[in-house]
Amino acid sequence: MNKDLENIFLNALEEHQYKLLRICTVYAKDDDDTKDLLQEVLVNIWKAMPSFKGDANIGTWMYRITLNVCLRLKTKEIGRQKKTLRLDSRAINIYKTDASENGQQEQLMQLRKCIKQLNEADKAVITLYLEELPYKEISAVTGITENTVAVKIKRIKNKLLNCLKPMI
């Protein structure tokens, strides 16, 4: 691989590493699994770098690879055994209250439980949304139209609110 591609990879990784990590946590069962999954994602991104044409934003391209790797490995894992997912993303903070740190942690735990109940496609969409990606990028990563993204996000929010209502 030439030095230019290596620099592009390193710069993109520096900019997007935490988002990639948080996406991996949605599909991992614990911290070690998250690290392994991220490593697999980075290997796949590195291998795919020569095929990056620059048609899409490199971040969008990396998110797509990340989701594809996560979903592929998740499918393999389901084939071997049923497991529970954990979501340990620090980016998710939909509660803008003055609640104590413990109260916010409890709300985050409840949100994680509700997100675990979503199907894989909805998990992918809401994870990217919570990472504050614009609908256009979510569309590019998931392969669904922007209008479908908007409708899905609205429906997912309603599902999450209904799930959280008894807990709030």
Set out the fold topology:
Blueprint: H1 3-27, H2 31-48, H3 58-80, H4 101-116, H5 120-130, H6 135-142, H7 146-164
Describe the protein's architecture and organization:
About 70% of the residues lie in helices and about 0% in strands. The chain contains 7 helices and no strands. Helix 5 crosses helix 7. It starts with a helix and ends with a helix.
Q: How many distinct beta strands?
A: 0
Q: Extract low-pLDDT stretches.
A: 80-99
Estimate the global geometry from the Cα principal axes. Answer: globular
Number of helices: 7
Q: What composes the largest sheet?
A: none
Q: Could you tell me how far the N terminus lies from the C terminus, measured between alpha carbons in angstroms?
A: 52 Å
Helical/strand content category: mainly alpha
- Mean pLDDT across all amino acids: 81
Give me the Rg, rounded.
17 Å
Write the H/E string, N to C: HHHHHHH
Provide the helix percentage. Answer: over 70%
Beta content comes to under 5%
Which short descriptors sum up this protein?
mainly alpha, 168 residues
Could you write a compact summary of the structure shown?
α1 (3-27) runs antiparallel to α2 (31-48) and α6 (135-142) packs across α7 (146-164). The protein is an all-alpha fold and 168 residues long. The protein is 71% helix and 0% strand.
